[in-house]
Amino acid sequence: MWASRRTVRYVGLGIALAIWAAGTALAFNHQRLSSSVVTSTVFFVRHSDKAVEALGQPIAFENGWPWISGTINQLKGQVDISFRIKGSKGSGTVFVKSFRTGHHWNDQELALRLDNGQVIDLRTDHSLVGASLAH
Predict the structure, then answer these.
(1) 53 φ/ψ angles, rounded to the nearest 5 degrees
(2) Is residue 92 within 8 Å of residue 83, measured between CB atoms?
(3) CB within 8 A of 51, min separation 6: which ones?
(4) How far apart, in whole angstroms, are the C-alpha atoms of residue 30 and residue 41?
(5) Ordered DSSP codes for 61-117
(6) Is the dihedral of CA 5, 11, 17, 23 positive or negative?
(7) 38, 71, 108, 110: which could form a disulfide with 122 (CB 3.0–4.6 Å)?
(8) What is the spatial distance between Cα 114 and Cα 53, in angstroms, rounded to a whole number?
(9) Which residues, 6 or more positions from 29, have their beta carbon under 8 angstroms from its beta carbon?
(10) How many CB atoms lie within 10 A of CB 79?
């Protein structure tokens, strides 16, 4: 009887910790999803002639609840994220790498890697000239 109570407690504690960890991960993902970095990046992809040509329209997150991988730390001036996106013709992964020096953000990578392996560098897309990510 004593061993079964202890086992039940440990199983209950394990389940509680798993629920807490999942909730924390979802909360952090929601914070990244709501950031200006993700919002402006999706805007870029939706308005990029090259991305629209490759993915088709409408362009949206691949899933109803997208997972944003990586880090957004505006205080330290570091952004390194990726997420899945799709259109009517195909899908791919968006990569964003940026760092801040002083008050200026420097985009190291702003790219769309299609599932067929093609990489579209959105920093060189002339349909987006004059636009910049709002960090």
Answers:
(1) -65, -40
(2) no
(3) 45, 59, 87, 112, 120, 122, 125
(4) 16
(5) ESSSS---EEEEETTTTEEEEEEEEE-SS-EEEEEEEEEEETTEEEEEEEEEEETTS
(6) negative
(7) 110
(8) 12
(9) 67, 68
(10) 26
